[in-house]
Amino acid sequence: xxxxxxxxxxxxxxxxxxxxxxxxxxxxxxxxxxxxxxxxxxxxxxxxxxxxxxxxxxxxxxxxxxxxxxxxxxxxxxxxxxxxxxxxxxxxxxxxxxxxxxxxxxxxxxxxxxxxxxxxxxxxxxxxxxxxxxxxxxxxxxxxxxxxxxxxxxxxxxxxxxxxxxxxxxxxxxxxxxxxxxxxxxxxxxxxxxxxxxxxxxxxxxxxxxxxxxxxxxxxxxxxxxxxxxxxxxxxxxxxxxxxxxxxxxxxxxxxxxxx
Length: 260
Hints:
- There is one protein chain.
- By secondary structure, this protein is mainly alpha-helical.
- Helices cover 83% and strands 0% of the residues.
- The chain has helices at residues 2-25, 29-45, 49-65, 69-86, 89-105, 109-126, 129-145, 149-166, 169-185, 189-206, 209-225, 229-245.
- α3 runs antiparallel to α4, α3 packs parallel to α5 and α9 (169-185) runs parallel beside α11.
- The two termini are 32 Å apart.
- Residues 249-260 have low confidence and may be disordered.
C-alpha cells in the first residue's frame, strides 16, 4: 500500500513538472511557479531527489527570466546539491549550465568559469555533445565579456565546428554570431562580417527571429568597422525592430538557459 502511494506521488510530481515546463515555454511564469512549488514540496516529502532537482531547476529558470539572479542562483544551487547526492551527472550538468549564466549575470566571472569548466567536463564524460556546444558558447561569452578575446574565439570556434557536425542549426547560428563579435574586437572585420552573414542566413532559414536580431547586431558592428555606414544603419535598425517586436533588448549574445 505504501509503495502504491509513493508511486502515485511520483507520477503526480512528474505531471506537475511537465505541466510547468509547458507553461514556462508559453511565458506563463506565475502559474508555472505555483505548480513547481507544489512539485518541489511533494518531492521533498517523498525524498525524491531527482524530481526535486528538476523542480528546482525550473524554478530557477523562472527567476532568471524575471531578472532575479539571486533567487535563480539559490534554486540552481539547491538543484545541484540534490543532483550531486544522486550522483546523477546529466542533472548536475543541467544545474551547472544554468549556474554559469547566473554567476555571469552577477558579475562573478571566476565562479561562472569554474562551473562552466565543470559542466564541460561532465558532458564530455557522458557524451552529450549537444550540451557541449552550449557550454562552449557560454564559456566563450564569459571570456569575451572580460576581454579575453583569443580564448573566447577558441571556445566559439569549437562550438561552431561541433554544432555543424551535429547539424544543430540553432547553435551553429549562435556560434557564428558570437564568433563575429569576437573577431570584431580582434580587428578581423571582413571575417567577422562573413560569420555574421552566415548566422543571419541560418536564422532566416529556420525562422529564428531572436537569432536574426543577434545576427543583425553582429553584422552591423562589422559593417560599421568596415565603414559601410549605410548598410550598418540598415542592419541595426532592423535588429532594433525585431527586438522590440519580440520584447527583447540589448546587444549581447548571452547564455542559453538549459530547459531541463
